[in-house]
Design goal:
- The structure holds two protein chains of two kinds.
- By secondary structure, chain A is α/β, with parallel strands linked by helices.
- Chain A has two domains: 1-89, Alpha-Beta Plaits; 148-434, Fe-only Hydrogenase (Larger Subunit), Chain L, domain 3, CATH 3.40.950.
- Helices cover 31% and strands 14% of the residues of chain A.
- Chain A is built from 14 helices and 16 strands.
- In chain A, the strands form five sheets. In chain A, strands 7-15-14-13-12 form a five-stranded mixed beta sheet. A four-stranded parallel beta sheet of chain A has the order 6-5-8-11, sandwiched between helices. A two-stranded antiparallel ribbon of chain A has the order 1-4.
- In chain A, helix 6 (151-171) crosses helix 8 (206-221) and helix 6 (151-171) crosses helix 11 (304-316).
- The radius of gyration of chain A is 21 Å and the shape is globular.
- Chain B is α+β, with helices and mostly antiparallel strands.
- Chain B has one domain.
- Chain B contains seven helices and eight strands; from the N terminus they run H-E-H-E-E-H-E-E-H-E-H-E-H-E-H.
- Chain B has helices at 2-5, 22-30, 71-75, 100-104, 130-135, 155-159, 170-189, and strands at 9-12, 51-54, 59-62, 81-84, 87-90, 111-113, 140-142, 165-168.
- In chain B, a hairpin with a 2-residue loop joins strand 4 and strand 5.
- The two termini of chain B are 34 Å apart.
- The chains are: A alpha/beta, B alpha+beta.
- The interface between A and B is large, with 36 and 43 residues.
């Protein structure tokens, strides 16, 4: 699949260059006042350029391409009423609609917490004001047969990483373990720091794990063949679009995730279907993948993943009491560190937002000077709530406030994250679905492999 | 009155402007009836009152200079344009869209806004039946209003990431230059200051 990269519309781009410095992959080139281009092979799909682009299809100028043709080019619904910006990512809505119209396909979706808090903004409402239940109801009305919450797949991913961290600590394995849930970070390392591939955690990202479950565990409970399930991942993230097409993210010839929709695209679909999101009655998430409170918002805010993995590791080491994982700012922007005692190990963790901020740490690893045991690396400036697929904030001076209000929607209630790996629903999945013990590297359902990606230039 | 003569206006610096159009977006959002933080909340098209011109090697937004003896005001047959508190203002309820003001403005700062019919925005190139066209409130003159409704002043000035826009106070600017010139002259003549 070559759809996972961002693109620049040559008619709309004014050559302002605002997209160049946020790009972590140095993928964008162009002269001032002339249309810029994105290198497909360098792009990691993070969508920073999509979020920052302010050149749009002004109605006060003539464009060679009509509005209708442009919408079609971008695979956007013809009912779309908002302005179109120069930089955009490819949209899978028409593929999803095709699957929804196919009587032989059962379209199942899983939806992350960062979506539910932010989608309200694209309806002119404050973040968090549309409860997830109404989003579930809207999706069901559109034709999705089942809609699942993200927390059980997230718990599986956390469990795998916790086992891997403990194993590496106890057996003198290579450190740091680099969290693998950000597809842009994974591609960034594969492309630009391939020597560090083996530091990456082996487990698939949470939404990918969800796709695995939809096509195996859930399909079985619905008496369906994996061939008849079409799995859709709804999230704040654009880099998932490349990840979903990776050959290794498949089983039995079927991709775990058939289509990725972003929060913005979810809003387009709801508007296209004419559903009144304010007044529709909410419905619960489907129960085949039960909600796990301990990981309900682990993957939203920076530091959340680290906290979950570290505390779950503490739980595996049968430490008493709950770990206090506190990240503190450092002099470097986007870099926060924390120190915790995990059993006999004094462990340093770093939570980084912005891929280029990780480079000094990568250099330290390569020079043998690493001090970190766990690295959380997220491409987006305030973690997933500020993802490339989230509602696009129009004015630069409002971005921080909007991202902060999205982050504020997620619960800060203390959770028993030490118990993640022991959660009965989690244990049941390992037993019934995989017949493997948690952390088993031979579990091809949950574990993946990475590859060096050589860049032409 | 000095304030009336030397009324402020927003000026752009083509050397700083990168052509990003954020000023257009800020202007459109500031004049939008609905509250919108995000692209998805935009009720249709952006309708700004300043327009970024992109040429081969430069860009700059162009907007109304709030001329004291405004050509647009002088030419308007419907008396829709007037001077109010140092601003040249269009009363859209009197405008019939004859476009004489557009022809008269030396800056091309007057634009004609496609006003939405109901909630459906209007895009150029769309064919429409004559009866639909007659029902629309279409094509009314609009110009920069210096964001008189905003406590923080012009939205474009506030938002420009390159600080290329400035709300110019001509009286203060003139005084500043007078002072600089006088000091310069004194230095040349050799009188120590």
């Amino acid at each position: 699949m070559t759809e996972g990269f961002s693109r620049i519309d040559q008619e709309l781009c004014t050559g302002c260059g605002n997209c160049i410095s946020p790009c972590p992959a140095d993928a964008i080139t162009g002269e001032r006042h002339k249309p810029h281009t994105i290198s497909e092979e360098r792009c990691v799909g993070c969508g920073r350029c999509v979020q920052v682009c302010s050149a749009y299809d002004t109605v006060f100028e003539e464009h060679a391409t009509t509005r209708a043709a442009r919408l079609e080019q971008r695979a956007l619904p013809s009912s779309l009423a908002e302005p179109l910006f120069a930089t955009y990512d490819h949209c899978f809505i028409s593929a999803v609609n095709k699957a929804l119209a196919d009587p032989k396909r059962f379209v199942l979706a899983q939806c992350g917490p960062a979506v539910c808090s932010a989608v309200a903004e694209d309806f002119g409402l404050p973040a968090g004001s549309v409860p997830p239940g109404r989003i579930v109801a809207a999706l069901k009305k559109i034709g999705f047969r089942k809609v699942y919450d993200f927390s059980l797949p997230a718990a599986l991913a956390v469990t795998e990483e916790a086992h891997e961290l403990v194993h590496r600590l106890q057996s003198g394995g290579i450190l740091p373990i680099i969290n693998s849930s950000c597809p842009a970070a994974v591609k960034f390392i594969e492309q630009f720091h391939p020597e560090l591939i083996h530091y990456l955690a082996g487990c698939k990202s949470p939404h990918m794990v969800a796709g695995v479950l939809l096509k195996s565990f859930v399909a079985k409970t619905m008496n369906l063949d994996a061939a008849h399930v079409y799995s859709v991942s709804i999230g704040p993230c654009t880099s998932r679009k490349f990840e979903a097409g990776r050959p290794e993210m498949s089983a039995g010839g079927f991709q775990h995730v058939d289509a990725v929709l972003t929060t913005r695209e979810l809003a387009y679909m709801i508007k296209d279907s004419g559903i009144d999101l304010v007044n529709i009655a909410g419905q619960p998430y489907d129960s085949e993948l039960p909600v796990i409170p301990e990981t309900e918002d682990s993957y939203c805010d920076p530091g959340g993943v680290s906290e979950s993995v570290l505390r779950a590791s503490g739980g595996l080491l049968q430490q008493s009491g709950s770990l206090d994982v506190k990240f503190a700012d450092t002099e470097s922007e986007g870099v926060r560190t924390a120190s915790v005692q995990l059993g006999e190990f004094k462990v340093k963790a770093v939570a980084i937002t912005g891929l280029t901020a990780a480079v000094p740490f990568f250099d330290a690893i390569k020079e043998g000077k690493n001090e970190i045991a766990f690295m959380e690396l997220l491409a987006c400036p305030m973690g997933c709530v500020s993802g490339g697929g989230q509602p696009k904030v129009l004015l630069p001076q409002e971005k921080t406030a909007v991202y902060t209000s999205r982050a504020g929607v997620h619960s800060v209630v203390a959770k028993n994250r030490e118990g993640i790996a022991q959660n009965p629903a989690v244990q049941r999945i390992y037993k019934e679905c995989f017949a493997k013990t948690p952390g088993d590297k031979s579990n091809r359902a949950l574990q993946t492999q990475y590859q060096e990606r050589k860049i032409g230039i | 009155m000095r304030a009336e003569q030397f009324s402020p206006f927003v000026q752009s610096d083509a050397e700083k402007c990168i052509g990003c159009r954020t000023c257009e977006i800020a202007c459109a959002v500031a004049h939008s009836e609905s509250k919108q933080n995000t692209a998805g909340a935009t009720p249709g098209v952006f309708v700004p009152r300043l327009f970024v011109m992109i040429a081969a090697d430069l860009s700059a937004p162009v907007q109304c200079h709030h001329c004291v003896d405004a050509p647009c005001l002088n030419v308007c047959q419907m008396s829709a344009i007037s001077r109010v508190n140092g601003r040249t203002v269009v009363d859209t309820s009197r405008c019939v869209g004859c476009k004489l003001c557009l022809m008269a403005c030396p800056f091309g700062a007057i634009e004609f806004i496609p006003l939405p019919s109901g909630t459906r925005p209007i895009f150029p190139g769309e064919t429409e039946k004559p009866e639909e066209w007659r029902r629309r409130k279409f094509h009314r003159a609009s110009n920069c209003d210096l964001c008189v409704h905003r406590a923080q002043g012009p939205a474009c000035v506030e938002t420009c990431p390159e600080k290329a826009l400035e709300l110019v106070d001509p009286a203060a600017e003139k005084s500043r230059r007078n002072m600089e010139a006088a000091l310069d002259l004194l230095l040349q003549v050799g009188i120590g200051v």
